[in-house]
């Protein structure tokens, strides 16, 4: 779907290109936001009161769910592009359901931590854990809102197939971003240690 | 291939409500943004005059106690930087100029554009509400540094700071929605022939500033969210262990310095979010009102891009006094001084554009000339402050107040006034009253010099900023107090002169002299719409085609002293270094 080699006035369907560009930009903003949060996380880690927390096991489940959701979305996009509409609709629903299940698994992980009396305040590692997972969850919810609109379009016979394929492709792209961001967050929350930070900062 | 123009022309909103309130038309949204920004800017102006009353005549106005003074300082700073200048340049000028100047019918996401304004309005309302909550608005200083921002002893530490942070977060959402629109529109909705290197510099300035906003505001978002959690839920992201009012707080281990890094990682690009649109607009105003092509167009574009890039690696020059590794200080001082190079190129190019130009001393040109002088004065003191060893003694003094007001307060505002005067006929079809415009210009221009020039001396004298009163400081001579009284009197006059400007806007919009279709004889596309002011969809039945850059002024042999960007190719005036094969015209494509 790349249109980067074309100039704005080279062909029609300007709104398709605009939607693609708009989403890339938005993804850059989201990536910047999480990158800055992670910088803050690393800098805050390098203080005396830091106690790492053990990652709840549910996170592995949620990781698998989000990966599966992205894969389903990607296959839905391929199906929509090759005009296999029923299959595309099915996979689109699976992709969304996987994201909902991901959120449920994240909440389960929160419950697990709360059962162990790991609260929001007190330990900055826990504060960051809740904050970052919550913000990522909000981005998933934002994606689900857009997904809802795409599902509506997919169910309507009036939707132009080319347009629908684009919408599902963009949805899949956002799902991939959600997965990559989650992977980086999970890795940082679970395995970045003050020693590693000090090593990166040249003080290790 | 010619552009398929998919816009329908009968989709213009019919009712008053959809036309002027829930409007998705970029021109209406621009006016809504600008109107709100100017209204909130007047509040900021009032606050500054109240501050000056206290500094000039301490103790005379009893209601300006220390608490209120700090609230005025904080709200004045935040209002002017964020809610006035950022909103006006991006939401106001960005919205109005981008689609018209690049030959588009509207922004690419009109609904999101409308939402952007309403969310911005919500952020302003939340901010204004903070004046009326228990404890009043926050008095933490516009930088909102923790730990003091959320601790007892700071005005507005209960609700004011919460509303300030919430308002900022809402504002960032609005800016992001608008910003995605502006950047995507520039990248994807340009008319045929409008290459990136044919765009007017106004669009370039706004475009790069918007990219900065999209990448820098997340840093404010991060710091805002984390401080909000520190305040409301007792986390310790920024809050160290401390005694507050003799009591041990529950906070421990947080890093106030981390907040400063995040804040200034946003805060310095913010300076250029305001300055780059001003740079772009000034370039266009100079070119039109000196009837001469901008000198070094491509250098100007690259300077904008390079300044934008460098603005992300200078933030810690705001933190020289925070106690940093000397190597860091050295790095940030160096990067700060390097940014002076592309900036100086721009100033030289403006001056070289004027050289041997047919300079018309119209009101926009007066403001433009004033901008160059003011920006130069403010920029030069920036070279002082960019050096660590000079910054450290001056950092806490009125020298800094003078510097940043000249360079990012007054200078961009002069551009705002010039730009509004220039584009007012495009927006309303009427000219702003010239006599009132000149009066406003001279009072503002001379007044701001009378206000800020003396502040440099006060700063060098060691007069500290952020103080509510200066009684019993032996090192401050009586003459400094007299100077402060003088500054206050001038500030009141300058403040009142701004009301003349607002009056001029309203009066001229209703009764101004009809402007005709292109009163300044400008070459860029916003003056080439079938109707002036442009109607819904901007371009009537067919989109324009750009055959040249926007700076074809005084072209030898041309019929008149400008050639519109969309005039046929045979009229000449194509930009230097144009591609050897000009972009195919619409006729050729057919």
Summarize the structure.
Chain A has 204 residues and is mainly alpha-helical. In chain A, 77% of the residues lie in helices and 0% in strands.
What does this structure look like?
The complex is a heterodimer of chains A (204) and B (590). With 204 residues, chain A is mainly α. In chain A, 77% of the residues lie in helices and 0% in strands. Chain A is built from six helices and no strands. The N terminus of chain A is likely disordered. Chain B has 590 residues and is an all-alpha fold. Chain B has 16 helices and two strands. In chain B, 55% of the residues are buried. Classes of the chains: A mainly alpha (204), B mainly alpha (590). At the A-B interface, helix 1 and helix 4 of A face helix 5, helix 6 and helix 7 of B.
Q: Strand order within the widest sheet of chain B?
A: 1-2
What form of chain A results from the Cα inertia axes?
Answer: elongated
Mean pLDDT of chain A: 91
Helical region count of chain A? Answer: 6
Helix and strand run of chain B: HHHHHHEEHHHHHHHHHH
Q: Find the structural class of chain A using helix and strand composition.
A: mainly alpha
Summed over residues and divided by their number, the pLDDT of chain B gives a mean of: 93
The largest interface is: A-B, 35 and 47 residues
Biggest sheet details of chain B: 2 strands, antiparallel
Strand fraction of chain B: under 5%
Poorly predicted runs of chain A are: 1-6
Count of extended strands of chain A:
0
Q: What general form of chain B does the structure show?
A: globular
Fraction of helical residues of chain B: 55-70%
Helical residues, percent of chain A: over 70%
Oligomer: heterodimer
What is the straight-line distance between the termini of chain B?
A: 8 Å
Q: How would a crystallographer describe the biggest sheet of chain A? A: none
Radius of gyration of chain B: 24 Å
Q: How many helices of chain B does DSSP assign? A: 16
Kindly name the structural category of chain B: mainly alpha
